[in-house]
Amino acid sequence: MRSVLAAVWLFLLGLPCVSLAASYEVEPEDSGEQALFALREDGAITAQTLAALLVLRRSGVDPSHASRAGLYALPGLTYARVDGLEASGGLTPEERRRLAPFLVSSNPERVSGDARLLTAFAASDPVLPPLALQVRVAGPEGWRVGLLTSLTRRRLGAVHREASRRRLVAEAPGVSLAVPKFHGQWTGERASVLVGSYRLGFGQRLTLDTTGLPTPDGFLPDDAVRAPGGVERWCFLGEGACAPEERGADVTPDFQWDEGFRGVVGTVRGLVGTSSEVSVTGFGSYQSRSLLSHALLERTSCEGTACKAPAVWLSGRDARVVSRTLPGVFHEWAGGGHAGMAWTSRSQLGVTAWGARPVWNVEGAVLDFRSTAGYPAGGAFGAVGFDGAWGLGPVDLFVEAARTFDAAPGGGGGFGVLQRTVVADTSKELELSLRAYGRGFANPYTGAMSGPDELEGSRARNEVGARVRYLHRLEGALRLRGEVDAWTLPSDGAAVGSAGTVNLRASARVDWRAHALFQPSLWGEYRDKDVGVAGDCFDGSGEEPCSGSLLRVTARVKAELHDAVSVAAQYAHARVDDPVNHGVRQDAHAVVETQVRPCEAVRLRGRAVWKDEDLATRNRLEQSFRATLDASWTAADAVTTRARYAWVLDLKDARGARTPPDAPRHLFALEVETRF
């Protein structure tokens, strides 16, 4: 593996001296939601990039009024290009075409909006399908309102403590209508206020960020929802509690949503002197939050330092609930703000502070968070931080330092610092990032960059690392991208003896777009969980130290046969350290895709995916085939109907398998969107 690491470094050093704008791995050619999910399925983007693009697609950016940070969040724009927009007269026609799904007008001349009705179901569903409805309306005076409502059937009811048997009991799920998100917002020339559900973030995302965007700059309305991607088992009770037909049955899960902040948030801006600007943002939130049953602990069950997760039983049935989300198990009071001074769009200072306090909603139970919950135990928690930015010529410097506070036993908080240096012109960008997070830096509302490993449910914690990102872009011809990210654990993490472990992620990608009939892409990825140590458990997890590596190479070819017809084929092969098969396994992933637009109003997309996680065996990991057909039809530029059908086959061999292969599945999704 040392030769692989050396080759990756040589490749990156040999490229023209320049990181991917806004930290996205690719510039999506199709920004539809299903196309973004397909990029994630193919391994072309990370889960964080998918979340950011979905938020950006829903919230939108107004290029006429957006800040430098807001414009930089758009895919494919470097800092130098953002700074040159005013001088060049704004986005080019090609940029507007490519970025159209992410652009909005913050001051429409008349009342306008959209409504989306979504549903998903499987042929095997024994109950009615779930539904979600998103509605947004905006007016000419800077006001806008929005609403998310969902029809649920699998969501548990309220949780209470049964004193006579000293256990928690959840009400059985049933058909109900939930209104998890709503907002009303007004935006003026120097002020903006929002009441309802929102996301917000500042600086380098270290002290506070729930937006998911790479460069947050204040608050956004939140009405995001996640559609079901497959099916789940009908029975969620313990062993023996369900009839055999119930235990083998599948059902489409409900729509899911993040429980962000809910309350009031506002920003006021004002001039200081002739060129400087001061901004002040304040927020307050009272949110009902859900938690997985195994993320709870009950203090009355503690013996010394060992505390058990309380058993949760289903009302009306003498059976335990297994790994289900308990809705509204605690309420959270939160509040804080940010104050900043900007001398130019590139030179500014800011301070952020916030605090939160959980209030448990189960009378008679002494509950708290387990270490895996992602929230500090013991009571209130919060953070305070300072951020700054300075730029001159092609160079921009960013820095943020923060201190967290909590009441966790043996905790109390910790420090974190993050620094970025970016060198860019309109088509090239190089970014060097340095980070250091203490073991006590427990911040559930940080969005700062970090490795994928977690400590007590938090990623940006107990980590010292550096990352280099690179982008070189020739419009319409070539895109080169590279990244190297290395970090170490300054203290023991989840496993005893893991202090000093060095982790590495490296990737490189090249896309050639000079000819419509031949558009090849090639990218590789290397990950090592303990550099310099031979291991055989890359996918392993648990309390024992685990080391191993993964090397994946992916090739893709796309051909645009006509303005309305394109085809693509992709193959990925991975070498993964694994305790079976003499310490190594070979994975494969193949995709064939075609897109057809028979007329301007109709779009068709077909996709076939084969996945085999261990080519040497057929009864241990995932072996599957999935074929999907997406159809979109727009009527009178006002109503768009999108439908999806997926056929899923489990190719696992039943002989020797721990669990029998699933029966073929037929999955459907439907979306109707109207604009007015």
Task: Characterise the protein shown here.
With 676 residues, the chain is mostly beta strands. It has helices at 2-14, 33-41, 47-59, 68-72, 79-83, 85-88, 93-99, 244-248, and strands at residues 112-122, 131-138, 143-152, 159-162, 167-170, 176-187, 191-201, 218-221, 232-233, 250-251, 261-272, 276-292, 296-298, 312-314, 325-344, 347-360, 367-369, 381-392, 395-406, 415-424, 428-437, 463-474, 478-488, 502-512, 519-528, 549-562, 565-577, 584-599, 602-612, 623-635, 639-650, 665-675. The strands form 4 sheets. The protein has a 24-stranded antiparallel β-barrel. It has a 3-stranded mixed sheet with strand order 4-5-14, with no helix packed on it. It has a two-stranded antiparallel ribbon with strand order 9-10. It is globular and about 70 Å long. It starts with a helix and ends with a strand.
Topology:
Elements: H1 2-14, H2 33-41, H3 47-59, H4 68-72, H5 79-83, H6 85-88, H7 93-99, E1 112-122, E2 131-138, E3 143-152, E4 159-162, E5 167-170, E6 176-187, E7 191-201, E8 218-221, E9 232-233, H8 244-248, E10 250-251, E11 261-272, E12 276-292, E13 296-298, E14 312-314, E15 325-344, E16 347-360, E17 367-369, E18 381-392, E19 395-406, E20 415-424, E21 428-437, E22 463-474, E23 478-488, E24 502-512, E25 519-528, E26 549-562, E27 565-577, E28 584-599, E29 602-612, E30 623-635, E31 639-650, E32 665-675
Parallel strand pairs: 5-14
Antiparallel strand pairs: 1-2, 1-32, 2-3, 3-6, 4-5, 6-7, 7-8, 7-11, 9-10, 11-12, 12-15, 13-17, 15-16, 16-18, 18-19, 19-20, 20-21, 21-22, 22-23, 23-24, 24-25, 25-26, 26-27, 27-28, 28-29, 29-30, 30-31, 31-32
Helix pairs in contact: 2-3
